[in-house]
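Homework help board

Subject: predicted structure for assignment chain

Our instructor gave us this sequence and asked us to write out the predicted structure in token form, then describe one feature. I got the tokens but I'm not sure how to describe them. Can anyone check?
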Amino acid sequence: MINVGRINQLEVTKEADFGWFLDGKDYGSILLTKRHAPEGVAIGDVVDVFLYFDADNQIAATTEKPVAQVGEWGLMKVEGINSIGAFASWGIKEKDLLIPFSEQRGRLSAGQTILVYVYTDKASGRIVGTTKFNKLLDKTPARYTTNQQVDLLIAERSDLGYKAIINGEHWGMIFPSDVFGKLFIGKQLTGYIKQVRSDGKIDLTLQKVGVAKMDDLSEKILSLLEKKGGFLPLSDKSTPEAIFATFKTSKGTYKKSIGGLYKQGKISIDKDGIRLIQE
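My token output:
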């Protein structure tokens, strides 16, 4: 099955002076120009190509990889504006992605870097982008549980914190008290469900909640100690930055975890770091 707007695996069927023709199934032969062909390609090879509609509305193939395929979000720079909308660079040099005015949540301007969702417009068949995410999200009930691991995409920043897209399906919020490390629009990371409120809104965290958080971190500390020969140069006096760089957690949580391990007799806490106590 051929999916325009996504990367496909197509067989090379014919060579020409200007490139190679690929087996596009129901779409017929699709040209892959020499400029976009892999080095050493030959008839019978199967190549990974991204399919899109060119300026003449014909299917074109390229080995360039887009920032986002159809059905995905991506961070893109607005290159220009005309009478029908904005055009953003999405990794395909021959053609920018159209974001129609009707699909803009607030007018865009050239030079902006924005998060865009790529989809196929049913009416025109064109591949376009949108910044109106509300119509894509929260269409199904949020059946998450506390401490459930989820995939997050940072989509917006506000006075309340960071709005994130959960598993490509729901909105969630990361409040400042649950932010560790550097977050920015377009960043993808793993997070956890903190709670689903009675009104359906979802609070997120970047580390597990409560005892589960402590247990998870304690296991990571012990595992890394074993890999590092029983010593880590991270004590309760280490900087928050050094602790986060290693364990992606706050200094407060780290101190509680090593304190618990110390009370259990599993580690010693010294000025220069922590040491594993061999049983």
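Reply (TA_rk): Your tokens look well-formed. For the description, you could write something like this. Residues 73-130 form a domain with the OB fold (Dihydrolipoamide Acetyltransferase, E2P) fold (CATH 2.40.50.140). That's the kind of observation they're looking for.
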